[in-house]
Design goal:
Length: about 375
């Protein structure tokens, strides 16, 4: 069999990048000599994260439409045309067997160009509410891999395959790491542990709610692992100066241990976060970000809430309600068990394998 050549495109957020890298790793495990080329947006986080994972990436001059009136929107059509032309040049040089898109504007340009050249193409939709790029591409690609039910609202039903959202392999058996996790974070084994995560950049509303209610949380006998995100670092000094039981980090690299230690998790409702929470089977309070396209985090959260798999606190209500919800959930073993059992049904540990299976089918059908 000739060497397999694959283009993978997607980025802008970790929710697009990390599943793409997980699929690249699965391809490499299955075909050790596979040639993989990533395509991203030249000024976004994928240009740093993908090379760190060990893959080549080429950046396109593209960015999304601004929601407010902005001079940048005038350049949008120029960027799209430029990026499609550059994508065609890349395809002519690289000659891939298949193109896989994970969302984001760079993925839109590359997959549009790939389908123009009749290259077998697949897209992956991580969210319960389809993104603009994937909705544009739906009639052009052969297969659409999804993580949620009822996606025929957005895509042709005959193209849909439920594969799930790929998560990191080190999250597969976190509950066996609890003792190690408690030691690593220097936690009291007699206290319940709350894990607060708002993404790598942080979540201002969650952080401010926790900061304001920290004394209340500690008075309830709870301890906390708190990822503030890099933008909230300045606030740490006001906490550290008091002998707080909160373990505070700008960013947590050992997320497998953080999940292992947690009795209750507070998180945004990005698709990747939800996939991880389902995999580690933790009771969670979701605070969806209101600053995302088409409010898709609320829709992701509601998919769980409707099946009693998570508790929802709206961003606008968080300062008033979040801390009380944390204390109530930490104190209620029955609700914890219900949420754990129900969120487990959302886990799809073989998602990366499932996507690669579909990739190979599309190639072989050609």
């Amino acid at each position: 069999m000739k060497k397999l050549k694959v283009i993978i495109s997607g980025g802008g957020t970790g929710g697009h990048i990390y599943p793409a890298v997980a699929v690249a790793e699965e391809l490499q495990n299955r075909f050790p000599d596979v040639d993989i080329l990533f395509i991203g947006a030249s000024d976004r986080m994928e240009m740093e994260k993908v090379p760190k994972a060990g893959y080549k990436i080429i950046g396109l001059w593209i960015s999304g439409l601004q929601r407010s009136l902005s001079i940048k929107n005038i350049l949008f059509p120029v960027k799209v045309i430029s990026s499609v032309f550059k994508s065609l040049q890349i395809l002519n040089t690289f000659k891939p067997d298949v193109a896989i898109g994970f969302g984001g504007y760079a993925s839109g340009a590359m997959l549009y160009a790939a389908t123009m050249k009749k290259i077998p193409s697949i897209i992956h939709e991580a969210n319960s509410y389809a993104g603009i790029t994937n909705k544009i591409l739906k009639d052009r690609v052969e297969k659409i891999c999804v993580a949620y039910e009822r996606m025929e609202r957005f895509f042709p039903e005959r193209k849909i395959v439920k594969t799930g959202n790929p998560v990191r392999k080190d999250l597969m058996n976190v509950n066996s790491l609890r003792d190690d996790a408690m030691k690593f974070f220097n936690l009291d084994t007699n206290k319940k542990t709350i894990l607060v995560i708002g993404g790598s950049l942080g979540a201002r509303t969650i952080n401010e709610s926790i900061l304001n209610g920290l004394q209340k949380i500690e008075s309830a006998g709870l301890q906390m692992i708190w990822q503030t995100g890099k933008r909230f670092d300045a606030k740490q000094s006001t906490v550290d100066s008091r002998q707080s039981t909160a373990k505070i980090f700008a960013f947590i690299y050992e997320m497998n241990l953080a999940y292992a230690a947690a009795d209750v998790v507070v998180s945004r409702a990005g698709a990747l976060s939800i996939a991880e929470l389902a995999q580690v089977k933790k009771p969670v309070i979701l605070v969806p970000s209101p600053n995302v396209a088409e409010d898709h985090q609320t829709k992701n959260a509601m998919a769980l809430v409707d099946r009693q798999a998570a508790i929802l606190v709206k961003d606008m209500d968080a300062r008033e309600k979040l801390v009380d919800e944390i204390i109530a959930l930490a104190d209620n073993e029955t609700t914890q068990v219900l949420l754990k059992n129900n969120i487990a049904s959302f886990a799809m540990p073989d998602a990366a394998k499932n996507i690669v299976d579909e990739v190979m089918k599309v190639i072989n059908e050609r």
